[in-house]
Amino acid sequence: MKPDRTSLLLGAILAAVVLGGLALPQWTLFILTVAFAQGLVVLGLMLLQRAGLVSFGQALFYCIGAYTAGGLGRAFGTGDLFVQMAAGAAAAALVALMLGFLLARYRGIFFGLLSLALSMIFYGLIVKSEALGSTDGMNLVKSTLFGVRPDAGWVRYAMAVAAACVALGAALLTHRYLRTPLGRLGPAIKDNEIRVEYMGASVRYAIHVNYVIAATLAGAGGALAATTVGHIDPEMAYWTTSGEFVFIAILSGAGSVVAPFFGALVFGAIHTIAYDLSPNTWQMSMGAALLLAIVFLPDGLWSLFLRRKAA
Amino acid sequence: MSQIGPVLVDGVIYSAWLFIAAVGLTLVYGVMKILNVTHGSFYALGAYAGASLTGAWLARGYPPMLSYAVLLGGALLVTLVFAPAIERGLLRFMYAKDEVVILLVTYALFLILEDTIKLIWGVNPYFVAEPYALLGSFEVGGLRYPTYNLILVGLALALSAGLAWVLHSTRVGKLLLAVIHDPEMSRALGVNVDRFYLVTFTLGSLLAALGGSFTAPTVSVVPGLGVDVIVLSFAVVVIGGLGSLPGAALGAVIVGLVRSVSVHYLPQVELFVIYSVMALVLAFRPRGLFGLAEPRKI
């Protein structure tokens, strides 16, 4: 099969991270890795967004992924990034599979509110469970890659490259998925659900599948974020975390599987710069950025590239 | 094991607080179809205004009994400064957009207001306990309660009676019901819908600010105060049915009692129980207990 433009772009980004990462300072590698983690979550949100659904509870799966990674370290002493991400993704997928039977029936604001309620239930659970460190959360064991702990000077670079491999691989798979008949149903559901049903496709099934994929991505992202930051706490399941993800999703736009990662990187950059310039008003800058995005770029940052191409 | 008396008293007090904090949200949603995240910001604004103004009032040695009026005035002041400006300056340009997009607009405003509060009042906590202690206390089942809590209950009852009266027994209320039912038709018949939106948003925000200012004496007012209130009021109004006033009252009573029972008997599950009720209601009656059915979109 001939690789298309998106696949080539993903490959180019990977090459850029592998080569460019050698020249970047440590702190930018950290921001980059976190952006990959958030990008994974937002990639899942994009799938739902294409079907016209906005989840205000994606932090649930993000947090499940993070706590699975933390639990693995605590129970087995495993700090391997790939094991953590796989386990986090699997745990999130399992929960989403069950919740999906309920959520796939909901649309619009009610889908958002129910997912919000579910994530707050999880927040309420872990905030009070002392075994998981309640509000303090817990620290993760030192992360390894295939059982090997990179040298202190290289660990950020190695993590960033590993994160890039997984995240861009997931993006490629998602890109492929979007070209399958099931994947293409998303925008059709957003446009007109009843017509989709008349066509013979099951809207509920399609939404359920998208929901599970979104959760899987969020679980992997949560595990990646947990091991990158080295600490997890219940705030990861709180509604403000979900709000941040929706923020990035709006900022990115649903135009391409690359958009969420670009959006997450821009978000991280705005965050870092705003915090650096004025620690007490960074939220104000974020809010203003979100407002500007909604008003002037309703299709997200990605529409900038598309428009230029059309011109 | 605690007795049933304190559980009920706690439940009623907490319900009253929840109702005051959440009723504005359901009002704004009912009329404007906006799930308003800035509701939490107005709660926080009210709390800061109430705490700082009352603190100044008492520091000057003015009569402490009037501090309740100052709490009221503080809420009114911040609402009049911010709410009309937000509705006229920004929200009214968004009404054509999707419900979820407007929600995100209010989320952006919430982020901006969070820092505005820090810019105005700084990041240090405010304590104003005098109005809370002033009225003495009463005793139920061996536990002492500050009488101030009865003000909250009275305020909640007065608000619900007042809103029900305005809505069903006055000309303005009936016009408002028409706007809720069909804004376009109301506009065609000569109702000034824009003004109703402005007034509703201001009133809804005022209710949030009142909730904040009357809570201020019972807590230390710190940054991030409104964040919890947002999702808690979402739970209350969703349980009762978005846009329904009796629903908000019912939601507040349910959440209040559930929380009180869990705090007394099994404190570990407090938050878990509240949001489980919300999820259960959404699972079986997505439009809430008092919500009206809406035809499926074609």
What does this structure look like?
With 311 residues, chain A is mainly alpha-helical. Chain A has one domain. Chain A has helices at 5-20, 26-50, 59-76, 81-103, 108-128, 155-178, 181-191, 193-199, 203-229, 239-252, 259-277, 282-296, 302-310; strands at 138-139, 231-232. In chain A, strands 1-2 form a two-stranded antiparallel sheet. In chain A, helix 2 (26-50) runs parallel beside helix 6 (155-178), helix 2 runs antiparallel to helix 9 (203-229) and helix 3 (59-76) packs across helix 9. The longest helix of chain A is centred in the C-terminal third of the chain and has 27 residues, at 203-229. Chain A is globular, with a radius of gyration of 19 Å. The mean pLDDT of chain A is 87. By secondary structure, chain B is mostly helical. Chain B has a domain at 19-226. Chain B is built from twelve helices and two strands, in the order H-H-H-H-H-E-E-H-H-H-H-H-H-H. Chain B has a two-stranded antiparallel sheet. In chain B, helix 1 (4-32) packs antiparallel against helix 9 and helix 2 packs across helix 10. Chain B is globular, with a radius of gyration of 19 Å. Chain A binds chain B through residues 54, 102, 106, 108-110, 112-114, 116-118, 120-121, 123-125, 127-129, 192-194, 239-240, 243, 246-247, 250, 280-284, 286-288, 290-291, 294, 298, and chain B through 35, 90, 97, 99-101, 103-105, 107-112, 114-116, 118-119, 123, 227, 230-231, 234-235, 238, 242, 267-276, 278-279, 282-283, 286-287, 296-298.
Q: Which structural class should the secondary elements of chain A be placed in? A: mainly alpha
Taken in chain order, the helices and strands of chain B follow as HHHHHEEHHHHHHH
Q: Percent of residues of chain A in beta strands?
A: under 5%
Give the CA-based shape of chain B. globular
Described by its quaternary structure, the protein is: heterodimer
Task: Give the % helix of chain B.
Answer: over 70%
Rounded Rg of chain A: 19 Å
Number of strands of chain A: 2
Mean pLDDT of chain B: 87
The biggest beta sheet of chain A is recorded as:
2 strands, antiparallel
